[in-house]
Design goal:
Largest sheet: 11 strands, parallel
CATH architecture of the largest domain: 3 Solenoid
CATH class of the largest domain: Mainly Beta
Distance between the termini: 97 Å
Radius of gyration: 25 Å
Length: about 350
Amino acid sequence: MVVAWRLSSVVVALAVALVCSVLTPDAARAEATTTSKTVVVRPGENMKAALEGLRAGDTLLVAPGRHSIGYIRPRLAPGTASRPVTVKAQVWSAPPTLVGGLLLTSPDHWTFHRLRVEGTAARAPGLMVDGGVGWRVSASEFWGARGSDAYANVAIAGGNGYPRGFLFTENCVHDAARSQRVKTDHNIYVKIHGGPRSSGTISRNVIFGHPNGAGIKLGDGGQPGAPGPWGVVVLNNTILDGGRQVLMSHDVRDNAVRGNLLGLSVEPFTPQDRRTTGIYALMVGGTGNVVENNYVFSADMAVRDPFGKVRVGQDTAVRPAPALAKRSTCSVTPTSWQARYYGTTSRGTYLDW
């Protein structure tokens, strides 16, 4: 009986070992798809390596302080819709400052939150996002082009495939370059070569200080028929103190400009025609673009569209100039109640003038 019991015990042990050896690869794969890590990067540590070490579901906390990152082009592993990769400030009240610049290629389902980026690389945007699906940039600040002579503080491009479902929201972008280039120094430059599936939203941002360009440009190049973004929504932004506040150019299609507070335009159409505009449709050839429910002030006209290619809906017109509290800061706020229905202070319901 003792021998039989021992023999049966050995058989059971071998069976368990065999089952475990069969299941171990599957268990490892399951663990790889469900586990995630949180890491911290501190000033002086390698930001590029930290970004390249992230996988779906991971979080990178950026410690307070000034991070001299140089101009980096990290290779990013994709996240997923259910397991995004997150890069954010470790301390909400003390967002870190990244000095240099970031070129992010195909950041599929990556989120960047509560960061400050000072672009210092010569003629390079502080942030350039090229392609990518479902990425998000929020509650961050971007500047530096005035010192680096970059054509934009933030650029959204499509050389690696047009971005789809992106969100750039509740950020502050300010002080574009003042170069000798002709009207081409923008705060945000969306230069996607769009297609039927491209899409994204730029919403609730404060953008100011672009006297030689636009707060947001939707378009690419200066040649007739040059490709541009399709399917981008510009919604509830406060855009001030610039040549034009929103510029659409050439083959842009199915874009919408809604609910924005646009003011203090300074760029005349020509040396002979000194009029200004809040929204400029420059040689637009695409269809499906719409402009509606925007509050424009301190400009001669709300929309300049020489070729009549943009549909102008209700409630886009030049309105009385509101007083602005904290002008030229990321906390700029109109004091008149009418203007508060537009831009970042929008209550979600526009007035029917």
